[in-house]
Amino acid sequence: MSSTTTVSPLLRRLPGGCSALLLGALLTACASSQTLSIVPAGWGRFPVTSLISHPDSVYVRFHFVRADPKELVFEAEFSNAANHPVTIDPASFYFLPLPDSAAKPAAVAAASPVSAASRRLAFNPEMRLDSLAHRRDELADKASRVSLVEVLLLVASTAENVASVNRRETPIERTSRQVRQQGGQVFFEVQRVVRAAQAQQLHTTVAEQSVSSLRRATLQTGDRAVGLVYFPRLDAARQLRFVLAFDEQPVSFDFTQETRKLNGKQANP
After folding, report:
1. pLDDT score, position 260
2. pLDDT value at position 259?
3. Which UniProt keywords apply (predicted)?
4. Is 7 left (phi over 0), alpha (psi -120 to 50) or beta?
5. What is the distance of C-alpha 145 from the center of its chain?
6. Coil, helix or strand for 25?
7. Taking a C-beta distance cutoff of 8 angstroms, is the pair 220, 80 a contact?
8. What are phi and psi of 143, to 5 degrees?
9. How far is CA 139 from CA 134, 154, 157, 197, 203, in A?
């Protein structure tokens, strides 16, 4: 995948440090007032890691990394100690919401059984990277060109300036016209700078995730694969069962998640 987009020079267009302020606002706009903690079910205060040995001598390690606004990020590691190759495909990984083990017995019994329809598939790493790259290129293109609306505004401003020559403007009217026209130019310039910052951020994200994401692979004897896997968030469920597979053989990991406000008050007990 090509990732040659360069947009950072656009961030220097606005004077007086405006571009830095815009970039800071961009990076903090989506800051969450809550945090999500995820730990292996029943592990208490032990480290947030899981390691199992499959009967087929394939070792699988899976642990929680972080919670993004719309995604759960885990790291998965496969080590093939079998005497034959095995294939892993992150696009087939999924998780299931489970009945809350901390709930009262009656509530657990009343919970609907887990079904295939409740599966949440992990994001396909190839499709995810392609989508991010497409959005990056789209934003970079918008940041580097003049929009039709901006052209029409420029034409209207030019016509207004020509018309002002043939009539007597008061100093207040002239200043008002100039300020209005400059405001329109600044508005479109700000839009380009914001899009340039977003494109630059996505450019970095694509470059990093193309290396760090777990991809489909066939592991020969002694081979190891490790990388990040992205799942959709499901804050409403307290208990989650993640299912990873190699050669269509499932390996499951149960986790408990809890959403808390940043001030320490519990949001979803």
Report:
1. 73
2. 77
3. Signal
4. alpha
5. 26
6. helix
7. yes
8. -75, -20
9. 9, 22, 27, 9, 10
Contact, 144 vs 150, CB < 8 A?
no
pTM for the structure as a whole: 0.65
Please tell me the distance from the alpha carbon of residue 17 to that of residue 141, in angstroms, as a whole number.
24
> Who wins on pLDDT, 178 or 88?
88
8 pLDDT exceeds 60? no
Task: Report d(CA 75, CA 228) in Å as an integer.
Answer: 4
* pLDDT at residue 104 in the model: 43
Using an 8 Å Cβ cutoff, are 81 and 221 in contact? yes
Per DSSP, the residues of 179-233 read: HHHHHHHHHHHHHHHHHHHHHHHHHHHHHHHHHHB---EEEPTT-EEEEEEEEE-
For every residue of 53-118, DSSP letters joined together read E-TTSEEEEEEEEEE-SSEEEEEEEEEE-SSS-EEE-GGG-EEEEE--TTS-HHHHHHSPPP-GGG
User: What's the rounded Cα separation, in Å, for the pair 135 and 138?
Assistant: 5
Distance CA(112)–CA(9), nearest Å, equals: 55
Residue pair 248/89 in contact (Cβ under 8 Å)? The answer is no
pLDDT tens, position by position, 221-264 = 999 999 999 999 998 899 999 999 898 888 889 998 887 776 54
Q: For the segment 194-206, what is each residue's pLDDT rounded down to a tens digit?
A: 888 888 888 888 8
